[in-house]
Give the backbone structure.
Amino acid sequence: VLFFLSWNSFAIYKDSVLISALRNFITTELQFQFCHPFYTNWSRSDKPYVNLYISKGDKVESATKNTYGSFGTNEKAAKERAAKHEAEGHHSFIYKTYATSSAELNERFISYSEEAKCFIVLHEFFHHFRHDLELAIPYEFEEAIGDVIGNYGATEFMQHQDNHLRSIRKQTSKNERVYKIINVTADRIDRQPERVDELNRRCEKKIKRILTHADQFQIDRFNYSVNNVYLLKNRIYSKRNFLLKRLYKKTDTLADFLAI
């Protein structure tokens, strides 16, 4: 068991037990050995990591060569770059996250519910899995697989704990409802660019309705103003999700899914 120092030693003890159990699930059930630290070290900063996404103003399509630009924890620099792109008629989206493939502990991550921690740890595990095995997987498939593993790997991990199992199923349901709205809205904007503002407003209202009583992690992840680039960023996770979910459902276990 990993022990962390915190103002609330009992809560952190529970977190250490959960994370150790998840690591054990990954190494024993999924037969994966980590080559790098994985949720054992604390981040040097509790500030969120900042990524900037840029899209065209009339399409859900990137306006830059790279999917996103990473600014570390420098939100000011991201805002300055975003303003330049907006002046050119592009849409910008500054996404702040406390959960990355660096797999470091921070106070925000610790504050999330157990079902959210399960989702995050299993999602980030897949990035390490792909990297260490040098799998040639397109980025949008990598992220979508990570979310399928986060949703249904968490269910598999918690299948003998009824209370958490109900919470995980509720979390998965909310995630998938958001994915569906993002996919439908992005497709409609691509077909009807003249309705872009209207469709984005409707999408935002629907997502906010889903996020009522949502987990803090889901709020941190999805509760932003919706524009084309919000859809672009989140469609990376949602576009292939249901295809990959069907593939997962044809297997008996997460280990079988990873072996495909």
Residues 162-191 form the longest helix (30 residues). The longest strand covers residues 49-55. Residues 1-8 have pLDDT under 50 and may be disordered.
